[in-house]
Specification:
The protein has 327 residues and is α/β, with parallel strands linked by helices. The protein has 17 helices and 5 strands. It has 2 domains: 79 residues, N-terminal domain of phosphatidylinositol transfer protein sec14p (Helicase, Ruva Protein, domain 3); 179 residues, CRAL-TRIO lipid binding domain (Phosphatidylinositol Transfer Protein Sec14p, 3-Layer(aba) Sandwich), CATH 3.40.525.10. 43% of the residues lie in helices and 8% in strands.
Length: 327
């Protein structure tokens, strides 16, 4: 075992070896091979290329050198192409702070039976008057940056549960094609995290319809890890044990405290509420959405349009049975 693996338990070390092809004898060579590829992309500013940083990309791509490098390049390219998103990229930024305090994202105290961190989002908590969808995405990315420092989570990964209860049609209409592409690129294509499952619960018909339309834009591997449970929490419990879930998900624990993760990041600044409104954000969500990357422009077909949803018969809600995609 090298010093780069010092943070891993014996169980996780074995998992890294078997599932990710991680070999302590060749670890430094693997890292160097990825680092040597940096010269092939002079158009990208690689702000970090240290061993520990590159290692998380290798783990995210099961030590396939070129795939790890491509993810590393996309990580920095995404930040170059969306500079306004990463200005004041810290927990105390007013928009990020408001999103964090409303539970975007939340994190459960217990890991699942695979050692994965369980992230939760309660979609209806979004207060459109106080922060934007871009702020929510920034808060999620910032949180992942903090969590991925843990080598155990680099190997074991994450699970995400999104509760769509009481998420209104008006809120859903803000999920524009460009906003969705921004999120997909930031989370699926440009971040070194392993997501073992993304679970939708209590989704209304229009969220189900939205997913159906964006599904082709997701990688096959991502699609296989998305589970639409609807109101059937029993199917969720088959994959995540109720003993570690809060009562909102039919679990045995008390209701989730939305400020739990925010307090971890903000510490003593959690209660310091400065004045902030959506209009005070130096770059509005619309401006960020217009600044689409070349990769986004290639996916120029509309993901979903609120007008399309309005033309859908609400009776379809009864005909849309929850989909459960199993690996």
């Amino acid at each position: 075992m090298t010093h780069l693996q010092a943070g891993l338990s014996p169980k996780t070390l074995e998992k890294a070896r078997l599932e990710l092809n991680e070999n302590p004898d060749t670890l430094h060579q693997d890292i160097q091979e990825v680092r040597d590829m940096v010269i092939t992309r002079p158009d990208i500013g690689f702000l970090r290329t240290d061993d520990a940083f590159i290692l998380r990309f290798l783990r995210a791509r099961k030590f396939q050198h070129f795939e790890a490098f491509r993810l590393l390049a996309q990580y920095f390219e995404y930040r170059q192409q969306n500079l306004d998103m990463f200005k004041s990229f810290k927990a105390t930024d007013p928009g990020i702070k408001q999103a964090l305090k409303d539970g975007f994202p939340g994190g459960l105290a217990n890991l699942d039976h695979y050692g994965r961190k369980i992230l939760v989002l309660f979609a209806a908590n979004w207060d459109q008057s106080r922060y934007t969808l871009v702020d929510i995405l920034r808060a999620i990315l910032l949180s992942l940056e903090a969590m991925i420092e843990d080598p155990e989570l680099q190997v074991n990964g994450f699970v995400l549960i999104i509760d769509w209860s009481n998420f209104t049609f008006k809120q859903a209409s803000k999920l524009t094609p460009s906003m969705l592409r921004l999120a997909i690129e930031g989370l699926q294509d440009s971040f070194p995290a392993r997501f073992g499952g993304i679970h939708f619960v209590n989704q209304p018909w229009y969220i189900h319809a939205l997913y159906t339309v964006i599904r082709p834009f997701l990688k096959e591997k991502t699609r296989k890890r998305i589970f639409l449970h609807g109101n059937n929490l029993n199917s969720l419990h088959q994959l995540i044990h109720p003993e570690i879930l809060p009562s909102e998900f039919g679990g045995m624990l008390p209701p989730y405290d939305m400020g739990t993760w925010a307090r971890t990041l903000l510490d003593h600044e959690y209660d310091d509420d400065s004045e902030y409104s959506v209009d005070s954000y130096n770059t509005s969500a619309k401006e960020v959405e217009k600044d689409l990357s070349p990769k986004s422009m290639k996916r120029s077909q509309s993901v979903v349009d609120p007008g399309v949803l309005k033309r859908m018969d609400k009776n379809e809600e009864e005909n849309m049975q929850p989909l459960l995609s199993l690996d």
